[in-house]
DNA sequence: AACCATTATCGTAATATTGCGTTATAACGA
DNA sequence: TCGTTATAACGCAATATTACGATAATGGTT
């Protein structure tokens, strides 16, 4: 149905799924990469960098902000986006922890 | 449009987005967690564990298999799923690398 | 062969996502 | 005040995803 039955899953599982959404679209990966290398970004810079319209980019930024992994600050007529350190590290820990759970074994 | 313009993004970005899809739904996180602790699984076990129908679970398994992060082996009338070590480690590297790109700074 | 258990596939419905054009909105400078 | 610029918000269309019941398909068992 396109509707995720999140209520039947554990909080941790929903949380990871939410965080993963920050990386599950190439445009969002590109935006995050831009933020990582440029430390800060203004939407208009992204419009010049990415082959997407301004409104589409704004929407991706909104989603990233909802997830919490980025935050924006008004700077005159512009908006200064940057990575939210706390959430970033939280996401990093969640993923690294998850990946660490795997212990190779010749099972199949 | 619901259609992702993947052709305009870099391979790396699309690759990460694809891998992230393995984790962007709580049911898939739950399936992977089950595989992590049980090392192996038969679909029917999951049907008993998760509050989702058999067909829905089968679909999630199919997607995980398409991503490549799990693989399945026929075992009589059953199917034995397990984590694909190579892809798992590849995903781990991609994510860890990405997370490592962030250097905290008081920017905003 | 008939039957059972297990899993995949199909069809369908509901909802979500992606993308864009267009229209606000807000801040600055002339 | 009036443009100009930068962003957000709205609304639409197209496609994707999620979920399930029903139906196949597969392999083993009797």
Task: Give a short overview.
Two copies of one chain form a homodimer. The first copy, chain A, is 56% helix and 11% strand.
Account of the protein in words:
2 copies of one chain form a homodimer. Chain A has 108 residues and is mainly alpha-helical. Chain A contains 5 helices and 2 strands. Chain A has helices at residues 11-20, 26-38, 43-49, 54-67, 85-100, and strands at residues 70-75, 78-83. In chain A, strands 1-2 form a two-stranded antiparallel ribbon. In chain A, a hairpin with a 2-residue loop joins β1 and β2. In chain A, α3 (43-49) packs across α4 (54-67). The model of chain A has no long low-confidence stretch (mean pLDDT 92). At the A-B interface, α1, α2, β2 and α5 of A face α1, α2, β3 and α5 of B. Chain B binds a DNA duplex (30 and 30 nucleotides) through α3 and α4.
